[in-house]
Amino acid sequence: MLFEPFKIKMTEPIRILSKDEREKKIREAHYNLFLLRAEDVMIDLLTDSGTGAMSANQWSAIMIGDESYAGATSFYRFEEAVKKITGFKYILPTHQGRAAERILFGLVAKKGMVIPSNTHFDTTRALIEYNEAVALDLAIDESKIPSVRHPFKGNMDLNKLEETIKKFGPENIPLCMLTITNNSGGGQPVSMENIRETKRLLSRFKIPLFIDACRFAENAYFIKKREKGYENKSILEIAQEIFSYADGCTMSAKKDGLVNIGGFLALNDEELAMRAKNMLILTEGFPTYGGLAGRDLEALAVGLNEVLDEQYLAYRIGQVEYLGKKLLENNIPIIEPTGGHAVYIDAGSLLPHIKPENFPAQALSVEFYREGGIRTVEIGSVMFGKKEESGRFKPAPLELVRLAIPRRVYTMSHMDYIANIASEIKNRAQDIGGYRITYEAKHLRHFTAHFEPIQVGR
Ligand code: F0G
Q1: What does DSSP assign to residue 145?
Q2: Which residue has the least CA distance to atom 1 on ligand 1?
Q3: Ligand 1 centroid, distance to 353 Cα (angstroms)
Q4: Under CATH, what is the fold of the domain 19-48+309-453?
Q5: pTM
């Protein structure tokens, strides 16, 4: 039986709000969960980014942080931890993942260029587009169908990648990315074989491979469990092999760094590293702290070591799987198999009576709060739907609700509670109505939009 491989030394109270109070709070937040105060949320599944709990060892490392501006001892400890796992020559700390992406794409992405990936995360895509290049998602077709089971649903489609290279020309592809695990595609892993073959294909055209490494340890664990030949390898060995096929990586350490803030850019190309270092100095800080405090670098050095612990990963992936299984037992449709950091509910199938333009996934997110004080995130037509110039509404490909599980924060009984709430919602699914937007910003509207409920059948 699965249980948390840690004891809890410090607790944080959860304020239990009554249903009436929750109804009032969500109305006051204009039915947008981003506008709730965290103190009014009972279980917060908005993201697994920076929301994890640090260990006693990390907290004690914080006390020995060296806050020197240049040459801090903490930097060298951090650098050693990253080098041990990735083997890259140049390690640049940044305050979070998108800062590493901004520096990298600011240097290599130019107008007319194309940057393929299995699936770009929102910030990667936005930063590529900000630099007037094109971001392409080339994951295998299975990744697009929630109910199709595939052990490595995050894999790159190698045929599509080769076609893309031939169509645009290797000179217009400054690098290729692999996001592990594939967050936007459901936290699905990429196999070692696929990473190796992606590298082999790119090498033929001299295109560098970069890894978006936020959840590299979770991906390594899936390889150990699902890919032949890796059963007896350690997570560290698997991670080292993954990075050995790449020329660099960007990392949001707020995920598998097990810290609340931090990130890095790591690479082998000396000339590019020097240019990146200069940008780092210009926009983040001196290369031995890069926008972080010495104590943050210490906590990260310890976190990068702890995340390689197989018992931790068995609990981590097992907890997500457990929640997914409970939902499936209650006939709640999810992306299968469950990924590394989150369960994605297929709200389009659960609430077929709500049209995409009335945001079924937003409606389901609101119900999770209303019914159980649970905050989730909509990944559907609020986030990705568009009004075309003709005035016609173009829905997102899928209407999903993501239940992202913070690391080492919630227990198995919290998972049972979440599954119970989901069943309560399912039992009255046909009575749940859609929403319309009453205010929206021009970009990234999901963060600030206001909604109002519409009646069922209208
Ligand atoms: N790449 C991936 C795959 C991510 O999931 C994220 C963040 C980033 C890059 C950017 O890192 O936030 O440190 O700047 N994902 C969070 C999420 C926000 O909720 O999935 P960042």
Answers
A1: -
A2: 121
A3: 32
A4: Aspartate Aminotransferase, domain 1 (3.90.1150)
A5: 0.95
